[in-house]
Amino acid sequence: MPRAEITDLLLLEELLTDEEKAARDTVARFVDKEVLPIIGHHFREGTFPAHLIPGLAEMGVLGANLQGYGCAGMNTVSYGLILQELERGDSGLRSFASVQGSLCMFPIHAYGSDEQKERFLPGMAQGRLIGCFGLTEPDFGSNPGGMRTRAVKDGDTWVLTGAKAWITNGAIADVAVVWAKTEEGGAESIRGFLVEKGMPGFTAREIPGKFSLRASVTSELSFQEVRVPGRNVLPKVTGLRGPLSCLNNARLGIAFAVTGAAIACFEGAREYALSRKQFDGKSIAGYQLTQEKLADMLQEIVKAQLLALRLARLKDEGKATPVMVSLAKRNNVKAALEIARSARGVYGANGVTDAYPPVRHMLNLESVFTYEGTHEVHTLVLGKAITGIDAFN
Ligand code: FAD
């Protein structure tokens, strides 16, 4: 078993198929052996452990829930479980996999031409090609529809000008799915462009100074009259529906994934509390206030797992809606963040160092709280669903 049975209080194990458990356990073993021993060092140094990419590819993690083109074709539950295990290691590694699979391979798979799929997807599934997803801009985050990046048609090519900010994998990407405004037949729209490394006018630079997701590459992308050939435009989608459908796909994975960070924090805090003694040689796990913290953590983990599992099953049945995804992302990320903070407290002073994992998970989860739709934006999505009133503007 990759984790203590205590976190499966409601016997969710019984609701998983052998295939789902096997996918999870393969990644769990990889995380225990390859990730946990080195991730603290990468977080401290602010480096992404790129040497792990071939191992991820070998396990079928990259584009795991896509069919064909060398992808593993797993169901959503398996995909969620493997992301949960990666996140138990570190959210930076999980972010790499989410962006590669859900935000870069998914739009090529769903909206690309046959030629684009053949050209990019097998290499991406094998980890030979790295992808990123450029939607956010320096001045447009929660409101991506306001984007200023533009693509103007010039014969058979498109001329792309603008900038994207906070792009995971940006500086290491071979291909960027970039969303830009277009004007066709007098009407404004949005299209996805496959911008390749080395195209003249395309540059990427890493954003310095992050306290969060330090073991992940986060970059600014700049496009100065980049000439993108027509064959690199995603032909099957126009408008905000394109990027939003990718985000919806990724968010579901994130709602599942964050329980991994929560479990790592809970297990660590439990172990630490049992071994740490204060006052008369008594372990701090024996004090009621510590037990309350651990009880709250476990309760929220069990609830988050139930939510994620039900949502993933609904997705596989074709019944998951964006409102359901908002609810799960909003609840589970907040719960994981609070668990990480509480676990940090159980470690006392030791908890503020990177010798123990909670503060790393806590800082990582601050980004997860903000990306893929901020906590507040998901609140407004729910508010609109509940009242029928749009409070965004
Ligand atoms: P803003 O939109 O400026 O929001 C600031 C605050 O105001 C937030 O609290 C927000 O909730 C609140 N707010 C905004 N509008 C409203 C409103 N109408 N009502 C109430 N509150 C509101 N983007 C990509 O495209 N690709 C990536 O790969 C990617 N990776 C990322 C990695 C990291 C580490 C981080 C931190 C971000 C990443 N992002 C990425 C960007 C992320 O999606 C945006 O940061 C997010 O959408 C929020 O945008 P913003 O930061 O501009 O905040």
How would you briefly describe this protein structure?
It is built from ten helices and seven strands. With 393 residues, it is α+β, with helices and mostly antiparallel strands.
Measure the end-to-end span.
Answer: 48 Å
Largest sheet geometry? 4 strands, antiparallel
Alpha carbon gyration radius: 21 Å
Q: Identify every distinct bound molecule in the structure, by name, code or SMILES.
A: flavin-adenine dinucleotide
What string gives the helices and strands in order? HHHHHEEEEEEEHHHHH
Structure description:
- Helices cover 50% and strands 15% of the residues.
- It is built from ten helices and seven strands.
- The chain has a four-stranded antiparallel sheet with strand order 2-3-7-6, with helices on one face.
- A hairpin with a 2-residue loop joins strand 2 and strand 3.
- It is globular, with a radius of gyration of 21 Å.
- The relative contact order is 0.12.
- The structure holds flavin-adenine dinucleotide (FAD).
- Flavin-adenine dinucleotide binds at residues 99, 132-136, 141-142, 166-168, 213, 218, 367, 370-371, 374, 376-377, 380, 392.
Question: Keyphrases for this structure?
Answer:
single chain, alpha+beta, 4-stranded antiparallel beta sheet, 3-stranded mixed beta sheet, 10 helices, 15% strand, binds flavin-adenine dinucleotide
Give the SSE map:
Layout: H1 18-45, H2 53-58, H3 76-89, H4 91-111, H5 114-125, E1 131-134, E2 150-154, E3 157-168, E4 175-184, E5 187-196, E6 202-206, E7 218-229, H6 241-275, H7 288-316, H8 322-346, H9 358-370, H10 375-387
Parallel strand pairs: 1-4
Antiparallel strand pairs: 2-3, 3-7, 4-5, 6-7
The chain binds flavin-adenine dinucleotide.
